[in-house]
Amino acid sequence: MLKQAHAISEEIIEWRRDFHVHPELGFDVHRTAGIVADELEKMGYRVRRGVGKTGVVADIGEGGRMVAIRADMDALPICEQNETDYVSQNVGKMHACGHDSHTAMALGAAMLFTKEKLPGRVRFLFQPSEETSDKEGLSGAQRMEREGAMDGVDYVIAQHVDPNAPVGTIEINSGPCSGGVDTWYATITGKGGHGAYPHTTVDPFFLLAQVIIALNGIVSRRLDPFEPAVVSIGSINGGEAENVIPDKVTMKGTIRFTSMDVQKQIREELQRTFEIVKVLGGDFELKFEFGGPPMVNDEMVSRVIEQAGKDLLGQDKVRELHKTLGAEDFGEFLKHAPGAMYMLGTQIEGREVYQLHHPKFDLDERALPIGTAVLVETAMRFLKGNI
Fold first, then answer.
1. What is the model's pLDDT at position 291?
2. 232: part of which helix (H) or strand (E)?
3. What are the CB-based long-range contacts (under 8 Å, 24+) for 9-13?
4. What is the structure's pLDDT at 327?
5. How much of the chain exceeds pLDDT 90, in percent?
6. CATH 3.30.70.360 in the chain, residues?
7. Topology, domain 180-292
8. Residue 137, pLDDT above cutoff 90
9. Does the model's pTM come out above 0.85?
10. Distance CA 103, CA 57 (A)
11. CATH code of the domain made up of 2-177+294-384
């Protein structure tokens, strides 16, 4: 399978560079999705366009088990600082998270499946808007699964590039591998007045100071220390003039967790924290926006990916996954079928490592046929029952 993937590496790289030159944001991935759908139709796939607004669902094979492969297509609102032949031509937009390569490798996998006698079915989920959500707070995965993208799927797999790992390696673990996410919004209301007469006001900044201290105690003093979690403030706004105490202060932040029970507890603790302002004469409003569940890799699916990786690349080329609380909406698909995501080593040898979402992020394209082969080999093992 690795040999077959290397044989089409030029096509995979060409797709990746084309998507990189023409990055698109959120659900506005019309060009990318159009190319994906056109290529899949040429290969003989049964293609559905516009799933989850601009997603593409493509099936091949008949009967038996169904394995889904997910690839995200959207870029980031970042001005690229690389100097390459394939630098972004869309000012202020950049594939700084590797989704261009995810899409290209999935297309490469789709091509390889057409050369196999499939003992089952394969479904590709080309997803928009992994990086952000729409006005209703829904990401691309949430939109696609609501429109039946996971109907009939028995297993689902995905990959993500890792600029810290060498080419020729993958990383995989079972269990929680990235965090669920909530966004919270709060308004603290006091009583404004002249900055020279603070005793006549209920200063919302003073109330805010007590809240900030309490917020930073939620994880360290209220949660089980064996439960990974984060409560962060991302924005605070209030007042305009240096000598005027305003009536209110607004703030917003993020919550990360690997357990839905912990999510519930953090929400309760946030509510308790903001009650402090009432004791001090103020008031508050607090609301939450659910961003997505944690990504929890299935033990059996992870084991199959691990073994496929070892057989293709070598025993020492499959490594333990470095877990983070960064959000990944692939967890939405995992609510419907057992699955897992692995990380693909894409480090550029001899160059400073620029992390995901950095304006100088890039990857070693020698990794692309490797990721393609691991996807196909893993899916074929599920279809053949070699699990």
1. 86
2. strand 229-237
3. 9/365, 9/368, 9/369, 11/107, 11/108, 11/111, 12/104, 12/105, 12/107, 12/108, 12/368, 12/369, 12/372, 13/104, 13/365, 13/368
4. 87
5. 96
6. 180-292
7. Alpha-Beta Plaits (3.30.70)
8. no
9. yes
10. 13
11. 3.40.630.10
